[in-house]
Design brief:
By secondary structure, the chain is α/β, with parallel strands linked by helices. The protein contains 8 helices and 5 strands, in the order βββαααβαβαααα. A 5-stranded mixed β-sheet has the order 3-2-1-4-5, with helices on both faces.
Length: 179
Amino acid sequence: MTGLVIDFETNGFYRSSVLSVAAIKIDVDWNLKKVDRLDTFVRHYHPVEKWNPHAQAVNGLSAKKIERLRTSAEYPAYFKDDHGLTNFASEAVFAVAHNAKFDSSFANLQIPWICTMKLCGGKLADAARLRGIVVKQSQLHEALYDAEVCLDLFTLLVRDEKYLPQQDSQLRRHYNTNR
């Protein structure tokens, strides 16, 4: 079953601009308790509104850094104008994020979302460390790094059967047809 692990870094909270998005396409074999990484999507954008210094203090994404990360970028400057994530997600039947309520508000993907924060509790770094995942503090709040840590958490949930798709009403139908 194909899914995505997604993280957004934004210029604030809900309804602010996306500055960075990372999505990791995965294939989950629930019976074998196996998660395979298939592909990765990473993009950086300029905000539509004025730069938010509070957000910048958290995610470290400044105008200068975004420019450097966008060197030779062949996609729109603003997330709102880019359909790359939607295209990348076209085969996915579910998405995973550490704060699914927040991330899903930006992604506009009409698929079920699994929230590792709801399943594991606490902040991403705390939930990961509690489960023995090494976390590099200096890389937190980089979209790709956070998505990778979230993927590690989700993989543990699958292996330990802490999350079973047949218990999720939205995923049950996909699980039953792909067995």
